[in-house]
Amino acid sequence: MFTEKSGGEDIVIKQMQNEEDEALYLVSEIERLQSKFDYKEIAVLYRINAQSRAIEEALLQYGLPYMLIGGIRFYERKEIKDILSYMRLIINPDNEVAQERIMKLGKRKWVEFVEKAIPIREDIEKKDTESLMEEIFSATNYLALYNEKDPDEYSRLENIKELKSVANSFPHINDFLEQIALVESEYSEGEKKRKGEEGVRLMTLHQAKGLEFSVVFMVGVEEGILPHSRSTFDHFQLEEERRLMYVGVTRAKERLYITHTRRRFLFGRRIESSPSRFIAEENEEW
């Protein structure tokens, strides 16, 4: 990989402890760079939509504006709103907004849920958030709505698994729902101030094709994410993942950051991470 541009900043490859450290590093670097680059000149690229959740929450927490390109904010995604509606109805059966949403999934599903919600509510104080979520999945057969062989629907299943990561961090259902309500209120506050329009750009590597930014952060460049775990044993899919890596690296005009973690809480479970094979390959060319 070569460029006609002479000089420039070295590529920064950074290993972090976990996804939270990664997101905080991202925030601190963006704040530091803001004196030289407008927010809209900075992009954060990731392989899968579910990765946006931790990044969005860190940016919201520190008041940094952002805009999702070609995507929807994590807690506004259909599958996430559906599951949250089920969970809110477990706590408050009279929640009319949640009732209306679940009814739109079908009258039969609504009737089945009303019947099965009674045993789910039993001894609710003894159940953690993730267990309640699993009971809802079992009672409603909600996950069967999505075909994992379809890329778009598989992405929705990945988002649902990422919601389980949040559930694991907030084992009490009320704390879980309060945390999400807080994030949702920050969404609304950002919309009122129209902060996103000039904000940092967040997008998947697929959505970054054809775009360029002064500063690019590629996050989660790890085995199982980039390349995606579904591509590891398929030569042609692996080559497509390698092209995505190339797309990400070549989006940066001035500065490029590549981050990976030692361990990551992803899809509802803690995993030990290893740097993507593509980092070593690209290093040979750099």
TrEMBL record:
UniProt entry keywords in alphabetical sequence: ATP-binding, Helicase, Hydrolase, Nucleotide-binding
Residues annotated as domain UvrD-like helicase C-terminal: 1-210
GO molecular function: 3'-5' DNA helicase activity; ATP binding; DNA binding; hydrolase activity
GO biological process: recombinational repair
One GO cellular component term: cytosol
This protein's record includes keyword Nucleotide-binding: yes
PROSITE patterns the UniProt entry points to: UVRD_HELICASE_CTER
Pfam families: UvrD_C (PF13361)
CDD domains tied to this protein: SF1_C_UvrD
InterPro entries on file: DNA_helicase_UvrD-like_C, DNA_helicase_UvrD/REP, P-loop_NTPase
The protein's name: UvrD-like helicase C-terminal domain-containing protein
Organism: Candidatus Roizmanbacteria bacterium CG17_big_fil_post_rev_8_21_14_2_50_39_7
